[in-house]
Amino acid sequence: MQAKEIGNRGVMFTFEPQECPIGGSTVYLINGKNTIYLCDTHLGSASTDPILAYIQEKGWQEKDVVIFFSHSDWDHIWGAGTFPGATIVSHRQCRQRIVQRGMLELLRYGEHRQGDVKLRLPSVTFQTSIIFEEDQVEFFHAPGHTPDSACCRDYQDNVIFVGDLVERPAPTVSWHDVESFIETLETLKTMGAQAYVSSHSGLVEPDDLSHNIAFLHQYLETLSRPPRSPQEEIRQKEYTLLMFEDAIRQAQGEKFDYSAFQQELWQGLDCDYRLTLTELLNSVEHEELKTALESFLVQY
Q1: CATH of the domain at 43
Q2: What sign does the CA torsion over 222, 228, 231, 237 have?
Q3: Are 216 and 260 members of one domain?
Q4: Are residues 180 and 254 in the same domain?
Q5: What is the pLDDT of residues 202-214, one digit of tens each?
Q6: For residue 1, which of 27, 42, 209, 251 sits 20 to 30 Å off, Cα-Cα?
Q7: pLDDT tens digit sequence for 34-66
């Protein structure tokens, strides 16, 4: 792990590809007056223990700790157990998604854990934004990569932690509302930050935001025609799954059980629901998946 100071009070902790089973990743820290703000927690205690040691080395251990989950994906939340007394902040949907998906994702991706993993739920949630006035640190909803995606803005250093919203060379789409993703990136461009910090690409530039926007427009185009590559085929199957999942959730309302839905769907397709999503999508044809999802939806 490498630690790099950003601005007057930021520290970017980078896990290099060779030491991280999912490739390069970044956790961002803001050293406030009486509070440490930690943006995401990576893959477990082996990821966050060195960050705790860094905090102690700097003499900041008496400060309160606020952990910010940029979204609910497993590779951002598994290390929170290292800070048992921390206040965890997230968008409201992030908490809901951890409740719905947390154990299944631990089952599917547990081989990637680094050290101990203790799933923790946010204790403070927001719908639009929340600001910690003493340190001028704001967390705000920025839907795109996922519906619960959010960013951290440090007004003093003019730095924005963007989570998985911006990646080099292209972002990952895990929500069907690509138009909202584009709108969020356009908004981030107008904020004129001195630095943008990405979870998987480190420091990114405004040009990277522009390239991501162009990619998303191209992504939408590929959905309207037959796939021209295995990658496009997987993309279309995942988009179909995301669309129907959202429709089924809306139809079921509070009764929707994500884990039960995943188990029933994939077992009905003679697949082991405990496999990773990529493995599952590779194991079925697009029309076969669509038919199964349509059958699911008509039940409600």
Answers
A1: 3.60.15.10
A2: positive
A3: no
A4: no
A5: 999 999 999 999 9
A6: 209
A7: 999 999 999 999 999 999 999 999 999 999 999
Please say which residue of 203, 221, 239 terminates a domain.
Answer: 221
**What confidence tens digit (pLDDT) does each residue in 79-133 have?**
999 999 999 999 999 999 999 999 999 999 999 999 999 999 999 999 999 999 9
90 Cβ partners below 8 Å, 6+ apart? 68, 69, 71, 72, 122, 124, 125, 126, 139, 148, 150
What's the rounded mean pLDDT across residues 247-261? Answer: 93
Determine the structural domain holding residue 159 and report its residue range: 2-221
pTM over 0.70: yes
- Rounded CA gap, 180 and 49, in Å? 36
Report how far residue 90's alpha carbon sits from residue 67's, in angstroms, rounded to the nearest whole number. 9
Q: Give percent of the chain above pLDDT 90.
A: 94
Q: How many domains does the chain contain in total?
A: 2
Answer yes or no: do 186 and 237 share one domain. Answer: no
Does 84 share its domain with 36? yes
Residue 19 has pLDDT above 80, yes or no: no
Specify whether 113 is located in the same domain as 206.
yes
Is 210 in the same domain as 289?
Answer: no
Residue 179's pLDDT is 98
Examine the fold and report which residue of 183, 204, 221 is the final residue of a domain before the chain moves on. 221
Whether 159 and 271 map to the same domain: the answer is no
pLDDT score at 268: 95
